Amino acid sequence: MNLSEVLSRSSRNKRRKRVGRGTGSGHGKTCGRGHKGLGQRAGGHSRPLTEGGQMPLFRRLPKRGFKNALFRKVYQVVNICDLEMRFEDGAHVTPVTLKEAGLIRTDSAPVKILGTGDIAKKLEVEATCFSTSAAKKITQAGGQIRSGSFPARDS
After folding, report:
1. Average pLDDT over residues 28-38
2. In the chain, where are the structural domains located?
3. H-only helix segments in 25-153
4. Of 100, 101, 119, 121, whose CB count within 10 A is highest?
5. pLDDT score of 11
6. Is 19 exposed, middle or buried (0-12, 13-18, 19+ CB in 10 A)?
């Protein structure tokens, strides 16, 4: 195997398509755009999903069901193994302290504590909600949980 075979120059230095340079170039006269119509015009293109007068597919199909995107609640999740690593024994954990520790992005969005991992420290944890396994593990370790919506900052 030669180095010249590995570094093929044919694909890297491909010439650009020069249109309108006579019939001998292969891209003369209509310049690859065909004859007449919207595709030949400068800036001309059909809108997506148009079917030329036929009823478009998205209007032919029935609309059924319910979309929950407007009503869903997006939680910032934190595992108890992360609480074990980032907080001291007896610490008071709130959304504000979680943000300072770098475990959540914003302290104004709802926070959910999940039960992945183990915890041995006594922590007083405030969050929007807890999974049942997380609540069980925190209380078994001697900690306290308080769920509900909390203001982002003390005012």
Report:
1. 90
2. 18-64, 76-147
3. 57-60, 80-86, 95-100, 132-140
4. 119
5. 63
6. middle
